[in-house]
Specification:
This protein is an alpha+beta fold. The chain folds into 2 domains: about 100 residues, Mog1/PsbP, alpha/beta/alpha sandwich (Protein Transport Mog1p, Chain A), CATH 3.40.1000.10; about 55 residues, Structural Genomics Hypothetical 15.5 Kd Protein In mrcA-pckA Intergenic Region, Chain A, CATH 3.10.290. Helices cover about 25% and strands about 40% of the residues. The strands form 2 sheets. It has a 6-stranded antiparallel beta sheet, sandwiched between helices. Strand 1 and strand 2 form a beta hairpin. About 15% of the residues are buried.
Length: about 170
């Protein structure tokens, strides 16, 4: 997931750390590779963020009279290590830090309100048309788009068991 503010002063990216088993391990591995590639040592700081074990590194990068603060934060949450990478131009560092350090679990009700869109394959009933299948499956997009996605005409009449890809919204 990537987020950029409208002025492009702050950028953040959230991803799952694929290799590290702890936040400190992720940060230390990054610092080691950074030193090998640049010759510059960066400190790993470990702490708690909203009660969660976390480790972080930060450094400033300058190029062509522009300056940028880079911060990487690893957070342990429910057995997964999350890596948040952020950058900010001068004057926006506190915005970056406060947003990165706001990582916490969502309240149950708020979590239930988050959804995602997925492609689902549905089975047609004999004699059903595209609109009927789209309505029954709670498809989110136009029949014209669903027809194009499936490579069929909008007026197709389906036989029992034929498959159709639709796009639906489900809980995250």
């Amino acid at each position: 997931m990537i987020a950029v503010d409208t002025t492009q002063s702050v950028m953040m990216m959230l991803e799952i750390e694929p290799k590290a088993k702890t936040a400190n391990e992720g940060a230390t591995a990054f610092a080691d590779v950074f030193k090998k590639k640049t010759g510059v040592s960066i400190d790993v700081n470990s702490d708690k963020i909203n009660g969660l074990t976390a480790s972080q590194i930060s450094f400033t990068q300058s190029k062509d009279r522009s300056k940028q603060t880079i911060k990487v934060l690893w957070v342990e949450y429910q057995g997964i290590i999350y890596r948040i990478v952020g950058s900010a131009i001068p004057g926006f560092e506190t915005v970056l830090i406060s947003n990165m350090e706001s990582f916490t679990s969502l309240p149950t009700q708020e979590g239930k309100e988050i959804t995602k869109r997925i492609i689902r394959v549905v089975e047609a009933n004999d004699g059903e048309n595209l609109k009927g299948i789209c309505d029954r499956s709670q498809n989110l997009f136009s029949t014209k788009l669903i027809a194009a996605i499936n490579g069929i005409s909008e007026d197709k009449i389906f036989k029992q068991g034929e498959l159709l890809k639709v796009i639906i919204e489900v809980p995250y």
